[in-house]
Write the structure tokens for this entry.
Amino acid sequence: MPALVFEGSGRLALKEMPVPRVEADDQVLLKVEAASICGTDLQILRVPPGHPATPGTILSHEYTGEVLDAGDRVRFLKKGDRVVVDPNLTCGQCPYCRMGRSNLCEQMTTLGIFIHGGFAPFNVAPVRALHKIGPRTPSEAAVFAEPLSCVVNGVRRVALQPGESALVLGAGPIGLYFIQMFRAAGAGKILAAEVQPFRAEMARRLGAQRVIDPTQEDLAAAVREATGIGADAVVDAVGTLMAEALAYVRRGGRILLFGMNTQAHPAIPQHDITRYEVEVLGTFIARYTFPAAIQIIESGVLDLPALITHRLPLRAAEEGFAAMRAGTGIKVVVDPQRER
């Protein structure tokens, strides 16, 4: 079968791979309906990489599929059921798993990063990674379950209250999820910072009352003008803006660090955090938030299809990667069953 395989050193290749099959009693064979490109995939393909991955792995940790076959111990799924995939596989035994913090598991591995993922027509996943979805849930919406589950975890961490103000740094896919979630939660004012005009316009469309280009305006001054005292909550959806975020948040406010980049080593003015009692919060992947993400998707409360800028077959996926790097693509959905 054709598959997009990470070869190391920034290389992604379309290769012929064996069709997988169920080989353990807890495994499920999926026909992949849709897979999407994540910012993490772009980080993996940077040189030097911003995120680790195993060479030889089929990428995509954001995917949805239909059950074709299952091992003997699989009880809650049957052939024809549709599922979304929680790609982060935890051990269930380490101290963090035992204290209910499975997203901090010491032995975690990830489908689509360290184990074969969704950029192929077929995939095998353990049943514990699968969440059932409705028969009429569009695959182009269901494919958002993984990133949305991570955003739900972040929204819970930052605990934005109705009427509070929020600033989202970066209007890529994650930033746009946060904007929509904050709007649905009753934020009083939503601001966004984005340099790409296309993404800035999308942020306005999806709920940001004001979008600032920090290369053209003084962002700190613009935030203070809009809020009076600074934002109640600031989300770094980029992964390199912690130090800058301190200039935009109000005293006693919260900074949520969502974006990740292993090459980011900011100089932090610790005095400002202490003196002004700023809460700096990390958030990492999903924490039992897949069911909530599925409910949000199936409710239709968020306009998720609006984020899709490219629908491509596997053989044209590089076009989607290029568009995301250039800022002209927001969410790229790949259909591994599509020939052209």
About this structure: The chain is about 25% helix and 25% strand. Residues 145-158 form the longest helix (14 residues). Residues 2-144+304-335 form a domain with the Quinone Oxidoreductase; Chain A, domain 1 fold (CATH 3.90.180.10).
